[in-house]
Amino acid sequence: MGTLQLNGDPPPKPGRKASPDEVSAATRKMRMLRSLACGNKYEKLARAQGATLIAGVDEVGRGALFGPVVAAAVILPADTRIRGLRDSKQLLEEDRVRLDAVVRSRAIALAIEEVDAETIDRVNIYQASRLAMTAAVMRLLPQPDHLLIDALRLDLPHAQTSIIYGDSLSISIAAASVVAKVWRDARMREMDAQYPGYGLASHKGYATPEHREALRKLGPSLLHRKSFAPVLQAELPWSETELLAGEEDLICPTTLSHQPAQTEDAADETGRRSGAHAAQRSS
């Protein structure tokens, strides 16, 4: 019996390891992220500069085709250690739920904010993510004196450290990532009952093949992000077959995205690229 490859990568030939070219970019990235150590390094650096209340800030749902982008801000006590806590995308759902409860029980302060699909379409996903993060920080009581943010800076007076791959390196950002993810997943399960047929409870609004097929059959709902390419294509009066036959010049080239996502993480990357195109058009 052949070997089942769950991530879509071709199986290596017997007797040798897979070459780098045989491993997808998403798989290579996930392996790299798993090699990073999530700890208190950046929290200690901020405290060395005089900070006492340090908030980790992160968002989830940036690459989804449906629903809100959700941000969380979390202040943990100094030298907090939570076994297994890391970027929410690297955790099983049951572990995220467990760690969410632990974070909530230990946090000094915690806040969650979401920005809806209509606003995302109006201001673009990048700005909507910043709006959600900013609102989450402003809801914290007490207010933090230093922010650790995953790869962004916010228009706030607080001292800030922007960390690439911050949700895999900072325990505070990882805590925000987990809290935001668990919150948004629960919202998607609720919305699945309101908007049946799209499979939201399963893929959480990301650009999976199942979701794309539902869009093709049902068309977009009121809460789909109309500025994202796969959603926009579902509203077009011509078929993808016609586009591939030579009708690409009928729409903006940035809306063309024919590669199906194989996993939620890969679907998130697909959605992020679609949203990035929208951000470029609106800037």
Describe it.
Helix content is 44%, strand content 11%. The protein has 283 residues and is of the alpha/beta class. It has two domains: 41-188, Ribonuclease H-like superfamily/Ribonuclease H (Nucleotidyltransferase, domain 5, 2-Layer Sandwich), CATH 3.30.420; 195-282, no CATH class. A five-stranded mixed sheet has the order 3-2-1-4-5. α3 crosses α6 (171-194) and α4 crosses α5. The longest helix is centred in the middle third of the chain and has 24 residues, at 171-194.
A few lines on this structure:
The chain is 44% helix and 11% strand.
SSE topology:
Blueprint: H1 25-34, H2 41-48, E1 54-60, E2 69-75, H3 93-106, E3 109-115, H4 117-123, H5 125-138, E4 146-150, E5 159-163, H6 171-194, H7 200-203, H8 209-218, H9 229-235, H10 240-247, H11 264-282
Parallel strand pairs: 1-4, 4-5
Antiparallel strand pairs: 1-2, 2-3
Helix pairs in contact: 3-6, 4-5
Number of domains: 2
**End-to-end CA span:** 53 Å
CATH class of the largest domain: Alpha Beta
Number of strands: 5
Percent of sequence in beta strands: 5-15%
The assembly state of the depicted protein chains is single chain
The CATH topology of the largest domain, please?
Answer: Nucleotidyltransferase, domain 5
Strand order in the largest sheet = 3-2-1-4-5
Total helical segments: 11
Low-confidence runs: 1-10, 239-262
Please tell me how large the radius of gyration is. Answer: 20 Å
The whole-number mean of residue pLDDT values reads 84
